[in-house]
Specification:
It is built from 3 helices and 2 strands, in the order ααβαβ. The protein is an alpha+beta fold and 63 residues long.
């Protein structure tokens, strides 16, 4: 993760890590969607799909 995102990831001090430790019991989130994707070659542009090295071909959603 650090190799791909570098300084885009937040950095936490030891004090902040200690505040977060055991602060939650459980957090759950479900999100469902359908997408057709293909492998994308490295590009200069960085956003969600390029970070994952994929290209969105189609997005199928319910109306």
């Amino acid at each position: 993760m650090h190799e791909r995102l570098g300084d885009k990831l937040p950095k936490f001090s030891d004090a902040h890590k200690e505040l977060l430790r055991n602060s939650l019991d459980f957090v759950g989130l479900n999100h469902y969607t359908t997408r057709f994707i293909a492998h994308a070659q490295n590009t200069e542009e960085i956003h969600f799909y390029q970070v994952q090295e994929m290209e969105r071909i189609a997005n199928l959603g319910s109306k």
